[in-house]
Write a structure and sequence with these properties.
It contains four helices and eleven strands; from the N terminus they run H-H-E-H-E-E-E-E-E-E-E-H-E-E-E. The chain is an alpha/beta fold. It is globular and about 40 Å long. Keywords: ATP-binding, Ligase, Magnesium, Metal-binding, Nucleotide-binding.
Length: about 190
Amino acid sequence: MLKHELRKKYKNLRLELNESKISDLSLILANQALQIPIWDFFYFHIFLSIEEQKEIDTLPLITLLQGKDKNVVVPKVRGVNSMENYLLTDSTPFKKNKWGIPEPVDGIVIQEDKIDVVFIPLLAFDAMGNRVGYGKGFYDTFLGKCRTETVKIGLSFFSAETEPISDVHENDVKLDYCITPEKVYAF
């Protein structure tokens, strides 16, 4: 399937989810993360959810990471296809950007080469570890600046597409894992 077809399909599937279902599935996803061998790492990048897009609520996962004394890093859009990463603290102020994404106003910047694990937003993924995001390229650009050994983990309410994504680009960065409510995929 083509990326634009998958975007449409999975945006529509998300629209069918109510707030209670999103909350329940998000908690299951956070607990599923315990199965992945990432708990010896130090810096964890995680996206903050766009409620209006019915994205996975990352707060349970953030709470889990903080409970395990991990350094949580959150993104802020900086220019075209570029993000900056800020350490999440109790005093980090947030403001929604033009896409409705909560972003840190300011704080301690963490360079990409320090990040050990990245939790990645997506709309769909296939059994090969290819993912479909919103199509802006922010995460592919960001992941290209991270170390090659940085662990890349997608979060999805839905299972992998059985057919490969047919229009994968050479700059698309594959996932190492994808967490769904039913299964943790390893690629």
